[in-house]
Amino acid sequence: MSDKDEAINIVSNFLEASMAPDPERAATYMAPDVRITFTGGRVMASTHAITEFNGGRYAWVKKELGSFDWTEHSDHTVVYSNGTLYGQWPDGRPFAGNRYLDRFEVRNGRITRMDVWNDSAEWLLTPDLNRTS
């Protein structure tokens, strides 16, 4: 398996565990000193912090995975995962088509950095943007 294939597999498995949500299993794909930054520059200390944050923002949320893109560097592989989020807001309104882009750095078989962007904040501020509400 190439470095690229291994990195994409690690990210894919991490995302699957995150969506379960299973923060313990998700953590097995991350380095102990992983840097996790969510939308708005929110720094997350762990996969448990991700699950807690998502639990406050959504009644539930899942990812419709799109494509994986990558670039090789001398000491790591960068993997981008894009697609859409779907789920339910805390007030019960469903949503779908909420774009996301996640960037991962994978070194020595572990995710060492994760950056997350999505449309959720915009949709919460302007509910008319949510096409399923």
Automatic annotation (TrEMBL):
Q: Which residues form the SnoaL-like domain?
A: 11-114
Record InterPro entries: NTF2-like_dom_sf (IPR032710), SnoaL-like (IPR037401)
Protein's UniProt name: Membrane protein
Provide the species name.
Marinobacter psychrophilus
